[in-house]
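Lab meeting notes turned into a lecture example. A postdoc, R.K., suggested we walk through two folding results consecutively so the class can see how the record format repeats. The first protein's sequence and structure tokens come next.
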Amino acid sequence: MMRSRFEPDRQLTARMVVTMFLLGLVYVAFIAALIVLLKSVVLVVIIAAALLGAQFWYSDRIALYAMHGRLVTPEEQPRLHGVIDRLCATADMPKPRVAVSDMDLPNAFATGRNADNAVVCVTTGLMRRLETEELEGVLAHELSHVAHRDVAVITIASFLGVIAGLVVRFAFYSQLFGGRDQRDQNTAVVFMAVMTVSALVYAISFLLIRALSRYRELAADRAAAMLTGKPSVLASALTKVSGDIARIPTRDLRTAQAFNAFFFTPALGPGTTVAHLFSTHPTLERRIEALAEISAQLGEAGGEPHAGA
């Protein structure tokens, strides 16, 4: 973890290491199985490595482009820059670039491979709905992701699942256009084996990434609450943002759903209890409960509970 005054979380660090180690083992086995089944996957591996490199080095630009975000100066957004300046000074960490997305969806996210290349983006819908103290809590949450370096880890981990899908397509088209002499029973067996292995790898990756994502959100809530000393204010922001998102038409949320793992709160949450097991975020109730425990630990050092918490 980079040196900052954000509350360190050894459990998060351990979980990130274990997740990346397990994913590494899964994908080594995956590539080995594909080499045996398909005889050659060099092209797929090269393409996947190139895409992963692009995702890692240009994740900030890709995310801003996808969310229609733009970098803003202190003159353009003095309130936003002021809050981030204060938080970075308190946390003793480099100030990230600051961006705004002209979306009504109230949300925020941090991206970038490290603290020196990080970007914190906030939607206009979030700034319009939150008081300055609440906005500070949300931004402290996002900055903690940068300090914990889990942004880079979740970016890499999330992208690895794409490899499985890429290999499936490669196998499908190579058999589809490989010639009539290849369309025999053995080819069908190999094709089904590739599909099965790919599906299994994707399922394992999905579960590992979701488990890490849920924990990192709780870790970010805790680090933000400890830095600001106002867990009840962060709880108020969570409650307000989650309630407002629930009132936005579903069709308007689906376009942003792909970024759930990076958002402060999910754009479109799970609708059933079972679905929560596969969610990128803990339930609102779980996050509020965790913040209430921190409030008790601090003895409400940050002040009286904020309205709406």
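The second example is placed directly after the first for contrast:
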Amino acid sequence: MEIWINPACSKCRSAVSLLDEAGAEYTVRRYLEDPPTAAELEAVLARLGLEPWDITRTAEPVAKELGLKTWGRTPEDRPKWIEALAEHPKLIQRPIITADDGTTVVARDPETVRSVL
């Protein structure tokens, strides 16, 4: 299992604590220091069953600079969104947990974290 975190994020710290309490084996990826590639984002999105705009933090200052709220949300727009997430990892919703069985979640609440255990 792998968890993508920003250590400054309280939801990320909470998710890590829940994994620790459960005795789960996992690796931590500090995705701001080790950003995912476009291919890794594609794979995570496929596992999540989501589109890139579904995991984008549109309230971030860089999102406003890029004008993300005005971007299209069609299959043709998908590569542009993925490129933005790869170039600006701060835009990626967190934490994201990828379990060994293929389950992948955006673990913003304790119930979702527990769903991968």
